[in-house]
Amino acid sequence: MNVRMFLGDALVDAVAWDDRGLAYGESLFETMRGHRGRVPWWMAHMVRLRRGAEALAMPLPDAARMQQEAEALLDGGVGVLKLQLTRGGGMRGYAPASDAPPFWMLSRHPLPASVDALDAIWCETRLAAQPRLAGLKHGNRLEQVLAGAEVRAAGVDEGLMRDGEGHAIAATAANLFILADGRWRTPRLQSCGVAGVMREWALGELEADIATLTPEAVETADAVFLCNAVRGILPVRRLGAKAWPQVHPEIRDLQARLARAQPGFDPSQEAS
Question: Are residues 196 and 98 located together in one domain of the fold?
């Protein structure tokens, strides 16, 4: 069985009819890369999950139980683990109940195929500003769903998204970094966007700047990569009409550092 569901500490068979994640999107999630039965960045994911739960005033399941169940689902192998957390059940209406046990679900999926570089477009769908949700990996992803449909229709690998003011924020499912004037930069996320676990690692490794980025800054950059905690460091080869024919040596170096830091991102060990 590749899915396990829980209400508080109890194993359950289905999502309840009154689940507030289903009714109102009152939920958080983490998507993690498993390697040899473990999630190497488990603690980093839990820090973000806890931050989100505090922001939404949602209860958290027992952390040790979540890790135990996650590793049991991996069963010594590799794969993608998705952890979804909702407030649980409640009566109709927006105001949440304060005493409902949280619902959480773990699912295991195959690793995505490795790629050398990505072709991308600018999506027309914009990210709305909501500072109280900025940075959180919450369950309200309709903007990404719409943008993902644009990506599929264009026949490319990914799409870059802007906010309402036109600033570059992220890809549909990854954070964005650019190299310009010898410095790495990644967009500010004070109004929208997800603060990724891989983004946090790359910020430290590159001593990157957090800056407001225009589409022009992205298109004129010396190098561009996307990153997330499942697929790692992904060079961008083409963005619309703009092309970067060769992967920049600094991106290759960062990929090598990532493989040393987290062997799960070493292509030679993907099937281990």
Answer: no
